[in-house]
């Protein structure tokens, strides 16, 4: 480990990376070494042969993808393969979040049967869709499932299932688009020569696969780290007009694109399509070759994303008013038939963060059904909680921390009570977290040399967070508010320490009361923060991003 700086060695060792060989693999991902053989997936051979037959016989295929920023990029890379091999008899189908809901639906399958569809390839959904897959097979449609969600005890009887959680594939935590990328890798390995595809052509598809991996919050270790690492490299050069127009609309320089830009700026705009409009808009943006169309859609997605923010703000105001008058149970259930179902996951997340509880938020969809989203603070697994209270739900799904549900109209007013009773049966004991940091230091550590060391560990995300620094006994020199159109919703604070170093730090959507202690100038505090390089208006400035102040 001697060839690495002391700072980098310390951080890597905290992450359990202790030998030069482990450090080399982590810091320098390698395409050949770090991507597993796709044929380690149980049904890969069957899936590739089936796809080849359908393409050669020019039979009709439907790509059926989830409506979020995992399924949609997955659909884009699969159609990229189809275009590459000159196959045109396919359509892309993405269910509407607000009127069809998540997953395969029977009415869509009936329509596919009428159109004589021969193959249905699902992306990021359907590992639990036993009856829907059975219906498709009855209607003469073969189904290749590509998914990464947890299966139930009984698997659908699909033609082929590609899901690392159902077989011995080594990388269990691929996202949905990651699984599709494996299918494309497998197909090219088997038939690339036949179609005269250049070796390594599929690497260009890592822009979309990387976008999905970073958006879907899967752990950035193992094969996922390699996907995210090369994904960002390709995104910086991506020739897709939609991506270029969206980035320029947000004043992001494509060649300096970071995982933060994706998480905070790109993903919310792509997800706004399904929350506020039609998810096909996001698919069209990422797949179009037309500059003018790309510009129009990028403008539209930015506008509806602003509408989404306004809608969430007004719902949160309403929530605040309702909470003034009610006592809190173990689980919070809150809703209003007028609330738009597509934005309720964001609302549930905000309430859960604030009140440190499991939260269920409901509205009514376009079919007059009570639907909603839930989020957990870690005190309970949502799937366990909903299973324990299953008689209240028409359907539900998700994982430990996030989920969706549909409730019987006559039971919604008793749901909070029922969930709170169930909570006491399945709750977990949360350990009050101690202060966690990677390095304790003074402010002199904040310099470009150290930033370039830390940057070697990027892209950061789940299971590879940005290194956190603890600065003890620093002084608040200056507090400044800033924000779009003078809104003042963000803070910029200048800190100094005994060694006379001065550093700027920022905290988005914060005010003087947002931390464990109210802030005022002249105060001595302890600061937890990560490094943050701003390139605002083309000017590089290294600063800190505040994690907490104590």
How would you describe what is shown here?
It is built from 18 helices and 16 strands. 41% of the residues are buried. The chain is globular and about 75 Å long. A hairpin with a 7-residue loop joins strand 12 (469-482) and strand 13. The model has no long low-confidence stretch (mean pLDDT 94). Helices cover 39% and strands 18% of the residues. The two termini are 34 Å apart. The protein is α/β, with parallel strands linked by helices. A five-stranded parallel β-sheet has the order 2-1-3-4-5, with helices on both faces. Helix 4 crosses helix 8.
Q: What Rg is obtained from the alpha carbons, in whole angstroms? A: 24 Å
Q: Which class do the helix and strand fractions yield?
A: alpha/beta
Classify the helix fraction into a percent range.
25-40%
Question: What's the number of helices?
Answer: 18
Strand content: 15-25%
How far apart the termini lie comes to 34 Å
> Any idea what the shape is?
globular
Biggest beta-sheet profile? 5 strands, parallel
Number of E strands: 16
Mean pLDDT: 94
Stretches with pLDDT under 50, minimum 5 residues: none
Give the strand order, joined by hyphens, for the main sheet: 2-1-3-4-5
List keywords for this structure.
550 residues; alpha/beta; five-stranded parallel β-sheet; five-stranded mixed β-sheet; 18 helices; 16 strands; 18% strand; globular
